[in-house]
Structure formats: structure tokens, C-alpha cells
Amino acid sequence: MSLYASYAAEDTQSLIKLGANENPFGPSPLALAAMQRALLGCNYYQEPENLALEAALAAHFGLAPQQLIVTSSMSDLLLILCRALLGPGLNAVGGDLSFFLYPLLVKSVGAELRCAPMPNYTYDLDAIAAAINADTRVVLLSNPNNPTGTMFDAAALDRFLDKVPERVIIALDEAYYDFATEFARRRGITYSHGFAPIADHPNLIVMRTFSKAHGLAAIRCGFGAAHPDLIARIKKFRTPFSVSGVAQAGALASLQDLAHIQKAVRNNADEAPRVAGALAQMGFAPVPTSSNFLFLEVGRPAAEVDAALFAEGISVRPMAAWGATTAIRVTIGTPEQNDAFLAAFRKVI
Ligand SMILES: *Cc1c(COP(=O)(O)O)cnc(C)c1O
């Protein structure tokens, strides 16, 4: 309820949106200016294949353009993968407390999502590997995982990649890459080898989005990197012109403003432990996060807590759709937003 009410933003300027893991500092001013310029020409079709953005991403990450696909969001890329690789009688493998879109997209092409249990809110990569059968074509992994915020490290991914047969595509969802990288730096661990493993693993696609750290959720732009053969195979399923000219321009400019991302990333790494600590003092135990949100068991119907927080001007995400009827997920906001959440939560609980 509160989530959809929170989309009506104009009349709820005072609503504090902590329900969808967005960047609380807004888009980069560079991206905003580029998108405004792009709007002036929106009577003309844009370049249909995102070539400028593809080239910029290739230069930025040290990849060849043939290793990249740009799509209108990572959700769109996930659907393209499902359409290219799955169908009736086939399956994908994932975890049982992961991104809500995975089962919807897999079922939309007539395939099945086989879910391995996630003990302690974390992927068990051995259980994921064991769930693969002759009809499996894709493994869907969110790292860090949404909605629990937990991660596996680069060495664990390496071991998993060596175990999975090459005919199975591993779709690695790194929507929260920037946040996890900063936590790992502070903790002295290696979260991800980034795009490097695609060189040795033609069955790996690593996916990112402009929706989270870049602060561009509503423009809809994402991308993936993989072996050129896999990229060529899935590009056939992308609709020409599907990434709008405004989105291309905004994403391109946002890539130039890494300071803007760093601001969000540093705020998050400072604030997540502070919010988690305050919740612990109230007697709650949020799952340790490597992302920009906390998964929290509230010990009572989450829908009630959600509605009460909404009445206080805060939107969070109740986890009923995931089968966790007594848990909420709350995004880490600015220090002021987090204080407002903590005060409201203390009152409501
Ligand atoms: C937000 C999110 C995405 C999708 O983002 P788009 O806005 O569709 O690009 C993908 N995976 C996970 C785990 C997410 O949380």
C-alpha cells in the first residue's frame, strides 16, 4: 500500500522514501543537465543501439564494446535473458529469499525457478550448484542479495564458477556493486573481481544498473558484460530504441560524475552501521548488510508496522511478498532521513 502511494510524489514531498533502495541525494547535476538537453530533441528518434553509451562503458571498464549490452534497466536485461535462454520445460536456479522479479520473469516465459534455501539470509552456493539439473539453463544470483543485504566474496564466486557446467549461464546481478565495494574496502575483504571473470568464463554475465548508486531509477537504464558470443545471442531479443534518448544521455553524463556516486556510497557506509546500532539498542537484530538497506525482523505483522510508519511519513518495504510476513526492508537514507526513521520506528514499535 505505502509503496504505491509513495509513487505519487508531487503531493508527498514530505514523504521519506526508504522503500526501494534509491540514492537519497538525487541524480548527478551533470546527468540532469544532459537529460534536459536531450529532452529538447525528443521529437526525433534517438540512436537505436546505445552505441555512444556502450563505447563509454567499454572505455570506463576496460572492455570491448562487443562484450557489452545496454538495456532499458536491469529488469529488462533479466527479461531478455529469460526470453533468450528459457522456455517451457526448462528452469532457472536461484535462492528462496532473493530479488522479487526473478520468479515473475522466469514464469513469464513458461519456465520454472528452482529455489535453494538461504540459511542465515545468505546464499549457500553449494546448494545452488546442487539444484542445477539437466533442464537448467540459468542461475540467478543477486550479490549483494536483495532483500537481505548479504554478500558472498570473490573467492566464493570463483569456486562456484569452476563447479557449474558451461552450458548453464550464470547471471550475476551486481545492482549494489558500488555500496558493497566500499563496505569490502573498509572490512579488508574482496567483494568482487568486477568484470574480469568474463574473460575466462563464457557462461558468465555480470549485470549493473543506473537505478541505485547513480540515482537514475526512473530513467530506466542498465547493462551487462559477457563474452561476445553470449552478448550477440541475447542482443537479438532486445527491442531497438528501447533505451530512451533521455536515458542514454543521463547515463552517459552520470558516468563522468563519480564524485556523486562516492557521496552516496560513503554516506551509506557511515550510516548503515549507525542505523543498525540504533536498532540493536532497541532490541532488534538487523541482518548485517553489504548494501544500502537493512533487512529487519520486527516480530509482528510487518504490514501493520509498514502502515504505522507510513502514517508517520516514512515508506519502507514489508516483506510479505517474499513469505517473510514479520520482516521489513528499510533503505539507508541521508542522516536526517535515518534519524526520522529511527524516531518513527521507536514510536511505532
Ligand atoms: C533494483 C534492482 C535491480 C533492478 O534495477 P532496474 O531499475 O530494473 O535497473 C536488479 N536487481 C536487484 C537485486 C535490484 O535490487
Main sheet: strand order: 2-8-7-6-5-3-4
Q: Are any ligands bound, and if so which? A: pyridoxal-5'-phosphate
State the end-to-end CA separation. Answer: 19 Å
How much helix is in the residues? 40-55%
Unreliable sequence segments: none
* Mean pLDDT over all positions: 96
- In N-to-C order, the SSE pattern is HEHHEHEHEHEHEHEEHHHEHEEEH
Provide a descriptive summary of the structure in words.
The chain has 349 residues and is of the alpha/beta class. It has 13 helices and 12 strands. It has helices at residues 2-5, 29-40, 51-61, 74-85, 101-108, 125-131, 154-163, 177-187, 228-235, 245-254, 258-281, 302-311, 335-348, and strands at 16-17, 68-71, 91-95, 112-116, 136-142, 169-173, 204-209, 222-225, 293-297, 314-315, 317-318, 327-331. The strands form 3 sheets. It has a 7-stranded mixed beta sheet, with helices on both faces. A 3-stranded antiparallel beta sheet has the order 9-12-11, with helices on one face. Helix 8 packs across helix 11. The radius of gyration is 20 Å and the shape is globular. The two termini are 19 Å apart. The mean pLDDT is 96. The protein binds pyridoxal-5'-phosphate.
